Amino acid sequence: MNIDTYSKWVAVWGNAMSVTDRKPENYARNLTLRYPIFNVFNGGALRITLDNFCGTEAVAIAKTTIAKMYGCSENKVKFPGDKIREDTLAAVTFAGKKSVTIAPGEEIVSDEIKFDVHECEWFAVSLYLENFTQMRSSVLVTGPLSGGYYSVGDFTESASLPMQLTRSSNCYFFLSGVDVLTEEQNNALVCFGDSITVQDWPDYLTLRVVKSGAKTVSVVRKAASGSRVLRQYDNITYESYGIKGVARFRRDIKVSGVKNVIFQHGINDIIHPVGGDVNPFRPWSDLPSAKELIDGLTYYADTAHDMGLKIFGGTLLPIFGWRTYADFRNNLRENVNNWIKTTDRIDGCVDFDEIVRDARMPEKLAEGFDSGDHLHPSAAAYKAMAEAVPEKLLK
Q1: What residues contact residue 161 under an 8 Å CB cut-off, 6+ apart?
Q2: Helix-strand-coil split of the chain, %, nearest 5
Q3: pTM listed for this prediction
Q4: What is the pLDDT of residues 310-336, one digit of tens each?
C-alpha cells in the first residue's frame, strides 16, 4: 500500500509509567533494553514515546533502534523471543539526534521514522543506556504478548542478544508508547487500571482482535500494580504501587488515535487499609466511602468525555479469601459495582464481576478462575474477561 494512504497516528502499544520498587541497585549503565512490540495495523511510519514520568533525575538514552522480528503468521501469534531482522534495522532519532535526555517527570516523542509495518507483525524497540541511569520510571506487565530483555553491553544493532549476558524481564523501563502512521479507520482502545489490568486480559483482548480478522482496533494497556484511585504512598516501602489514578488518568489516556477507554480500578482502595496499629503506612483514614470512590470514578468519566472519548466501566472482581477480606469491604465493592452498572455518567458497563464470580457464592471467584491468592484471576479467567468486552468496542 502506498504510504500516502496512511494519514492517522494511532498507538499500537503502550504502558503506564509507575515507580520501580526501590532497591540499593536502582542504577544501571552499559545496558541494552529490548522490547518486542506486537502490531495490528498496516502502516508506513513509526514514532515512540520515552517517558521519565516518575524519575527524580534526568535520564539519558544513548541510542535507540527499531527492527522487525518473526512470530506471527496466518493469524497465529507467537511471542518472538529476542531476535531481530538486521535487514530492517533503523535508527530512532529525537530532533535529528540519536541520543536524548529526558528531564524528570517529562516524556519525549521521537521523530517520525519511515518504517513499513504490516498487520499481525512483531518489531522490537532497543534502547542503550551508556552511563549510570536512574531506573525508576517503569511498569511490570505480564501476558502472552508481553515481555522483554536486558543485556550487559550495547546490542541495539545485534540480530540476537548474547545468552550469557542477557536476562528476560517483564519490567518495561522508559518506553510508554508506540504509534503507527496508519489508515483513518483504525483506532485505539485504552485499558486503564491496576494489577488485574497489568496482567493478561488486555493481551487476550488483542488476540481476540487478531482472531476476529478485523484488526482495526489496537489494545493499549495503561495500568500499574497496586495503584489506587484516590491515594498513593509517600514512602519508599510502597511507592512502587504507583501514582494515584486521579493524578495519572488524563495523562495515561492521552493516546494517539484513542476512541474508547475501559477502566477497571478501585479494588486496592478497598483492600489496602488495615489500620495504623497493623501497618503505619495503611491507616483506616485511607479507606474511602462508596461516595468518595464513586466520585473518583466519576472524575474518570468526566475527563474522558472532556477529551471527546467514550468510557466504559469494568466492575470490580470478587475478593473472598484475600488476606484482608471482610464483609464491609465486599459491601463497598458491591456498592461501587452497582453504580458502574446503573450510572448514566459512563457510556456502558463491562461486567467482569458477573463473568468470573461463583454462581452460588458471588463474593468469591469461580472454580478455575482464581490464580490462588483469591484476588487475581487465573489465565482462564483473563481469557473470559477479554471475551466479555462488547464487540462494538473492537470495530
Answers
A1: 32, 34, 82, 149, 151, 155
A2: 25, 30, 45
A3: 0.95
A4: 999 999 999 999 999 999 999 999 999
